[in-house]
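Supplementary Methods, section 5.1.

A reviewer requested that the exact input to the structure prediction be made available. We therefore reproduce it here, unchanged from the version used in the analyses.
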Amino acid sequence: MAKDSTAFDDLDIDLLGDLDRSEAQLSVRVERRRYGKPMTIVEGFPPDVDLGKLASKLKRAAGAGGTVQDDRIEIQGDQVDRVVELLRADGYTV
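The structure derived from this sequence is encoded token-by-token as follows.
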């Protein structure tokens, strides 16, 4: 017996995830930390986003360290331009 399927069964698209990303308004800013060192802060993510996975992607692209704390991503250095570019490419509104 053949499986009754639609054309959408074969697509690997998370439409609700895409909608959440496009509706979330993220903020990216730089804070000065100890000894005047800059830290790029990204906030405003929807609750269902895997921040650890996204932080790893951003850190790798920026070539910098960082962490996830209090529902925000912190990247070492002034990485605002690069982070904004990557988030927009992922479908986020920044």
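The chain is about 35% helix and 20% strand. These observations are discussed further in the main text.
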